Amino acid sequence: ATSKVKRTISVFDRGQPLEELNELEYVKGEIFANVWHDNRVARIDPQTGRINGWIDLSGLLKPGEAGDEEAVLNGIAYDESGDRLFVTGKYWPKLFEIKLKQK
User: Fold this and answer.
1) What is the pLDDT averaged over residues 31-59?
2) How far apart are CA 71 and CA 61, in angstroms?
3) Which pTM was predicted?
4) Fold designation for 12-98
């Protein structure tokens, strides 16, 4: 089977294009996207490309746990049946199950 692009969207945060998005996951009507070399995950409206909000994951690993400057947040997975969200990173020694709270 061959995958084909159905459509693309441009993503903007306060009018500025957001680049270096990777590791996309569709969660409850939004696209969650890791921003390369950032400890935040963007919550993107798939219709407009606007940022609905940010998930700040800084502090998940203790200083020194990752050990490498390339050991960055780089993994998002959503278990729809259990309504569970998992995150990890490149070279991270751990996988985290997280719950999101309104701020």
Assistant:
1) 94
2) 10
3) 0.87
4) Thrombin, subunit H (2.40.10)
